[in-house]
Amino acid sequence: MVKWLQTLTLALFITASPTVASALGHAVAVMYHRFGEDSYPSTNTTLAQFDSQIRYLKENGFTVLPLSQIVDSLRSEQSLPDKTIALTIDDAYASVIEYGLPKLKAAGFTATLFVSTKPLDDKLPGYMTWDDVRRAIQMGFDIGAHTSSHAHLADLSLDEVGREIAESNARYKSELGFIPELFAYPYGEASSAVREVIQEAGYLAAFGQHSGVLHNFEDMFYLPRFALNETYGAIERFRTLASSIPLIARDITPRDMMLGDDDNPPAFGFTVDPSIGPLSTLACYASGIGRLQLNQLGKRRIEARLPKKFSPGRHRVNCTLPAGSGRWRWFGRQFYVR
Fold first, then answer.
1. Would you say 206 and 185 are in contact if contact means Cβ atoms under 8 Å apart?
2. I need a surface site. Which of 75, 104, 151, 181 has the fewest CB within 10 A?
3. Bridge partners of 330?
4. Which segments within 248-326 are labelled E, that is strand?
5. Are strands 84-90 and 63-64 parallel, antiparallel or unpaired?
6. Cα–Cα distance, 68 to 145 (Å, whole number)
7. pTM score, whole prediction
8. Could you give the 3-state DSSP secondary structure of residue 177?
9. What is the DSSP string of 14-46?
10. Helix or strand holding residue 332 (H, E)
11. Within 10 A of 187 (CB to CB), how many other CB atoms are there?
12. DSSP 8-state assignment for residue 218
């Protein structure tokens, strides 16, 4: 516990000079689920959308790297090319191997598949098979961990979370011969206690489903990914998020992503790194609420008091700042209410 607290404190409160902070490597990660499955618009990307996104990346100077390589660079504080992006795909639906991966392979792009093991073990219709996963690896794609049953981890006891991890790891080892080093929280839901279990399980990094840009000062066990689907997959939005750069935030409150009766609505706040520059055009938006009234304390501290409680379920707060040349800085959090 002490080691974890020290690591989390370093990730959230570390300070650096503006010169060092502004030179950090950064990358965008995007998250897909299904391809060409029009019956599931909230998790589906149409084939036309996917084609246009791939074409945009190829024609506009983006570097598509394996997520594992980006994580290694961030952990070792190495630079990354500007406009670096990682493509991730959750849940291993059948349309991934049928449509998604062949299109990425044809474009010369890689991706990471976060696979929950039980749907494959149960041979559920609409999912990939273990043979499909092995085929994906042979095609050059990476595999990440995503629990056994795709459970709402923040709703489970810590013993149950541990069993989800142990059971899935045993299946990865049996079917693939290895245990993945990267983890994605199902639904992006986590808590500080769940985060600790994931770190202690030996993963190198873990990913949520909140908007933001990967950079060295982010918490390596609650990293952001931009979610894509039919509603949020238009090429105009994709252009904006793909070219995003970090809004480096420290001293983030509340620390815990799971809210209880005593901290809902959350006392949301953060301190912006001095390298970012003026904050007069910073804006934050909360799901179900809209634009938040921001209070700037001193030169760098931003506080927002939400006007009402979040209802049970997942909620996001996104903060953006124009960065010039049509690019935006992003910082986001996802909160969960039981």
1. yes
2. 75
3. 246, 320
4. 249-253, 258-259, 267-272, 283-286, 290-291, 294-297, 301-305, 313-324
5. parallel
6. 12
7. 0.92
8. coil
9. ----HHHHHT--EEEEEEE-EES-TT-TTTEE-
10. strand 327-337
11. 18
12. S
Element (H or E) spanning 49, and its range? helix 47-59
Instruction: Encode pLDDT of 146-159 as tens digits.
Output: 999 999 999 999 99
Q: Determine phi and psi for 293, rounding to 5 degrees.
A: -80, 120
3-class secondary-structure state, position 121: helix
> 235 exposed, middle or buried (CB, 10 Å; 0-12, 13-18, 19+)?
middle
| Residue-level length of the chain | 338
Taking CA atoms, 60 is separated from 49, 172, 229, 243, 255, in Å, by 16, 36, 22, 10, 37
Q: Which token pair is 75?
A: 């952990």
Beta-strand pair 258-259/34-35: unpaired
- The tokens describing 170, both together, are 């045993």
* Tens-place pLDDT, residues 205-227: 999 999 999 999 999 999 999 99
146, exposed or middle or buried, with CB in 10 Å at 0-12, 13-18, 19+? buried
The 10 Å Cβ neighbour count of residue 136 is: 23
Domains and CATH numbers, the chain: 2-244 (3.20.20.370), 250-337 (2.60.40)
- Predicted local confidence at residue 25, as pLDDT: 87
In whole angstroms, give the CA distance from residue 74 to residue 66: 13
The first and second tokens of residue 220, run together, are: 């390596």
DSSP state of 155: G
- Contact assessment for residue 248 and residue 276, using Cβ atoms and an 8 Å cutoff: yes
